[in-house]
Protein: NACHT domain-containing protein
Amino acid sequence: MEKILEYLEPKTFHRVHYVAVCFWILISVIFFAVFLDMEINESRLDFRCDGAKSKTVDIVREKCYEKYMKQYNKFGFPVYGFVILNLLLIALVCAIYSQIVRPKVDHLLDQDTASSTGNKLFIAYCSQLSIRIVLGVIFIILQTQLLYPLNFSSQFNCYLTDGTTQPSNSSDNAQNSTLLDCHNQRAVEKTFWMYAVLAVNGIIVAWILVETVYLFSRACIERSFMGDSKFLKTHLSLKQHLDGTEELRERKFQEFIERTKEIIVQETEGLLELQSPFVGNPGDHSTAKNLTLDQIYTNLVVIQNRETHDFTENREEQLKVYPRSRNENSQPKSMQDLLDVESKKVLIVGRPGIGKTLCCIKLLRDWALNKDFKATSGAQVHFNAAFFVKFRRFDSTKNLSLKELLIRSEYFPTHDMDNKVWNHLQKNPEGVLMLFDGFDEFEHDEKKTKASTYPKGIEDEKPLQILYQWLVTGKLLQDASIVTTTRPTALSGIAHLKFDKSFEILGFSTEQIKEYIDKFAGDDKQAGETLWRHISSNMNLLSLCYVPVNSFIMCSSLSEIMRFQCSDSVTLPSKLTTIYKIAVKVFYFKHTKEFRDKHFTRENYLSDNLPLAVEEKFKKLGRVAFEGIQEGKLILGGIEVKGLEGSALFHRLPDRRAALKDEKQFCFIHLTMQEFFAARHLVSNLSETELRNFVSENINNGKWQLVFQFLAGLMEDKVHLPIEIITDLLPVKTEERESVDYNEQWTENEEKRKVTCWPTEDERKLVVTLIKCLNENSRMNLDAQRKLQQMNFNCVNFFGCHLTAVDCSSLVNVINVQQISYLDLGYNNIGPLGCFEICKLLKCSESQLSWLDLTNNQLTAEAAKYLAEAINNNNSQLRTLNLTENNISHIGAQHLAEAINNNNCQLHTLNLTHNNISHIGAQHLADAINNNNCQLHTLNLTDNNISDIGAQHLAYAINNNNCQLHTLDLTYNNISDTGAQHLAKAINNNNCQLHTLNLTRNNISDIGAQHLADAINNNNCQLHTLNLIHSNISDIGAQHLADAINNNNCQLHTLNLRGNSISDIGAQHLAKAINNNNCQLRTLNLSYNNISHKACNLLSNSQSQCKLIL
Structure:
């Protein structure tokens, strides 16, 4: 019985039905045992016949028993045989049915039953019922009509022939026969058990018939009832199985997900894409920097739909097209910002290297680390499972199922997928995220894709492009989230698909580039600052770094270059060609299909040798780049880039709409890349004469500026091309200039100084271009320095030439000659790092530089620190330093104050106008001019915010006998009468050597004027010039000042009261004063006051020699 039950799966029967079958088998076994016992133990002794002679009783009993058995078992088939046959056939039918449908039931239990179609289970179940009904009816008929009587009689009349052993019932022998009355003692028992068999068979048949009728009637009413899933769930009533299976499925799924997450976290920790291109061989002790995704990942600027580029004629504006500053439409976004409940099918477009793949991997890693898309995170959407599919891993011609596609996805933990996991995914598609990366890398058949039909089932096998289309259109895993990334070049292949949203990754904004560099540098803050200053000060590099991979390449390349330079860590690698030669190769090899998965060593990137196929491609790119710049076309058509459309160095723009046909549009990944390849074209394809003529004709054309810079660098190794192609263009003309600004020391009469300047104003831009070119080529640099030393000039003037920090590096390398005393770099953009480069000139042992103007150059406290270190150097000859309109703050003022305390410092004039210096900075400067080492004669603090407190510190300083200050300019410093009082007391002191005091545009009223008037009455006061322009002085203040200049102790020569509130009364007081013989005033400025014409005439008619400005 146990063997029979092993073949009967409970889940394949209705619960009651299964119990009934088991009960029937048990009863059948009992019947079999009973009848077998009867057969074995029913002896002749149980059959008795009355009237038999004792001698023949056994013979009579045997003959009558045989006659009895022939009458009640006509075919001699034992009842136990009948029972066992009944049992075996019915059990066999049940077992065969159970084994046939068991896989189907298992499959339905494992998978999402709601998605199953077909009615095979219903048919099989009804078929086994029907067969069992038929068998039951047959056995009932056989039992009742053919094999056995309904009753086994206990009384039996047995006729036996006398003298024979054969029984006879014939009438012929009646007279010779003996009638015996026989009795079967087991007849009643046998009859009972036969009725029992019949009853059980009848009940089973009736019950099965009722169930069959019920099934067919319900099927007629509810057609879906016949469906496998519905039938399994409703009729077989496997709730307990379903609940247990669901729990098991959930457990298996969670185990799968946890294992998947572990692998993702491990595999994405150190990506190959983030390994330095300059890793050395094992044992080389390489210091190349390998990054982790968590360490370096920076969010990208993403916009909805496609971006259009408007390339202007101005090159600087063209470069600004690339990096984006943050605004409301281009805030940096992570991938999770792009997915929501309504946007489940998302397309991400981006040019090569823009960060599409890393963006997907970061999303996948954050999901694996439970940072994003968790059910408990409050996110709009959450995912239970995530799969990352790289198109390039698949063959477009081979068929595969969706399940196989998932198994072959990146970071999949096993070689197969458990059915319970697979079915869980089907049942919960809304929790599935699929990332399809790099559609552009997939060789797909558009005709096949468009001809795709509806899937026949979840297991349907098709090429990847069809499966992908079914996923996007919702024909498979309808509610799953599908994210696709592609380059713009492949958009036509998915143009027929409808995405909920489309985005384009624009890369990094300027702020993101800074953030990326900081992350790249990590704990080495100084290196990070150096990298940022170098990149941010060079618009070419800054705009190139909007592509994240270029930021990686730039940081890696610059770090590698700086590592081999034996100088201070803030030194710049200034040769742009060196950087680009590396960057172009790294970018091309990383993002070109045939090289992407190959390993390249540091030597591969640093070597100038390229594979022959790559060199040929680069030649074609050079031709396209050159022709594009020559024709002023930064947007190229499909015909112009034919054969190069798939190059990683091109970006596919949105098609240009035309009347009949849309035209493909491309541009180089970056303008500087186009310029680099144009330079490669020039150096490789033009003869010496052609190149010389081309350069001389276009050197002043801004669009070729960087091309020629690259050209000069590429000519370094082209010995057949003479360096004079560039160096002969260096201007030799100078010009004489005369100004008091060139004075290196304070003079009473501010005499003008004459200098010889190079270059001339009209040739400055040309010289800047040439200096950048010369710096790229060491041979050209040496030749240019030789020519400059032969020229007679002492002032280099690059005022307002848009110089950057990198340009300063080039400038220092080229003009480092002995005869330069004056350097005017006002109104550029050199920044702290450019300032560091200029400081090299001050530290040079042969330097004669004594005058330096760095007005309006975005200098900070850091720049002031570099300058302080330079003027402390014993080689420094600097006497005049102009830092007007920068932002050194009180910290920078402190650095400079510490420097002018040093006995090496020869600084006489320091101009710190408009530098955001507070009273704290004023205190540092006051302490410095107290020092006996300080040689400062002129200090200009115009347009800061030193206030009365700062004025008090300075007043105490000029009281000191060590102070040599002659001129102090405190214009526009929020100084009130209190500050004026402090200064007045100071100039009364006999130690004070101050000759000029400028308090223009402060809050000095009549009270402050009175304090100053009292001071210049003192015989200790040496003040010659007092400026009180635009103060709050009225007639009362004018009267105090008039009384002071009447005094014979007053040495004032110039008094400027322009723009006050002095009326005719005040003018009258001043008129009397200047007519006094004691008055030494030579200039009086009363313009822009409230003086009438009559009073002006009165002043003009005075007999004084004082010059009046009214």
Observations:
- The two ends are 131 Å apart (CA to CA).
- The first strand starts at residue 47 and ends at 50.
